[in-house]
Amino acid sequence: MNRIRLTALLILVSLVLTACSIQDVPVIGRLFGGGEGVDTSKPVTLTVWGLWESPEVIQALINKYQELKPNVTINYDDRSILKIDDYKDRIFSSAGQTIDADVVMVHNSWVPRLKETLVPIPATLMDAGTFSTNFYPVAVKSAVHDNQVYAMPLYYDGLALVYNKQHFDEVGQSEPPTAWEEFRSLALRLTVRAGADNTSNNLRSGAAIGTADNIDFFSDILGLMWSQAGVEIPTDLGTRAAQDALTFYTNFVKEDKVWDPTMPEATTAFADGKVSMIFAPTWIVNTIVEARPDLDVGVAPVPQAVPDRPASWASFWMVAVPNTSQNSAVAWDFINFLGQEDQQLLRFNESSNFRTIVTPYNSQTLNADLTSNPYLRAYVTTAPFASGGVMSARSGNKLQIDLLREAVNAVLKGDTSEQALKKMLNQ
């Protein structure tokens, strides 16, 4: 044992004298140079495909990783210039072909269908049990299959109720609604119509809900309603529960007239003060707050159908390793590094230099610190019971969104929800 210790000491002394890094020493470099069981002692170059994050933020994370792993070179390729549908086609059409990236961004709804073309994380870096402890159930459902982890979230995002506090004050409403019937009643009170007959198009709508063509996140709202009703998509779309939710959604236009197709897109209408309540993810709230800092904006959890069985809606992006990567172990070492709490804190802090509201952490533990943030509280407190899926807007799931859009428009034109959903399922 003393001889082993002496040998190790001599190696360390020689490193100091020759200015070598410990990663350059065979065997020992493997022990200290990478994640457990990952060899980063030899030069490796990784290509990372990213979306929407500021390059400066990603570069800060890359720099920190390369301080620890100087033999790894990371090239960041920002794919934000592509339309999301085109990006998705590139990811999915690469199955069985060489894709010139070692790390790719994938929407959480894609992973179950992509998993055959992805490399799971080495168990020496993280097992399924640890993943389930660190991240939200919706991330686990997306990424863990057959006890293998195929992707890791870089952050969390979902759906929340965004409202104009001044409009609430005008009708004597002090708190946001917590149930759908309360939401409906409030939307009616907040609606201001033109004309003495009080039936003309709205001067101000109570809520952006009920249409498909001027609400960017209409599919998320319906996905939320179906999730709260226990509807599995697409297997349960022919059920009475699915039909009732679609009817409830479209009745905000057909019966209540708190929103109509002539209004601007929901986010624009909210920023212009033309609608009192919308449903949106954090990045939309950031867009509104930065465009209209004078607005008094509130953010609350989404209304519930059954308070004892709360359900919310999540939509976020994850990172994964395609099976065409020649450096999959090192790629996962980098992803695992990004997912750790220290790097999550770094991402959040760096992003704060470029935006007012930053997407929440991926970590359940870290997000406990955001419950005092008025803009993020609603997202992180509802994340533990969130679900998600192919109905997520801005996810590249064009086929599913277009079919749902047709179903909503069919009901607005006179079809029953049963007829509209039947047509949707038969296409």
TrEMBL record:
Tell me yes or no: is Iron-sulfur among this UniProt entry's keywords: no
| Keyword terms of this UniProt record | Transport
Q: InterPro entries, from UniProt?
A: Bact_solute-bd_prot1, SBP
Instruction: Report the domain of life of the source organism.
Output: Bacteria
Does the keyword section mention tRNA-binding? no
Give the matching Pfam families. SBP_bac_1 (PF01547)
The record lists the membrane-crossing segments as none
Matches recorded under Gene3D superfamilies: Periplasmic binding protein-like II
Give the similarity note.
Belongs to the bacterial solute-binding protein 1 family.
Could you identify this protein by its name? Answer: ABC transporter substrate-binding protein
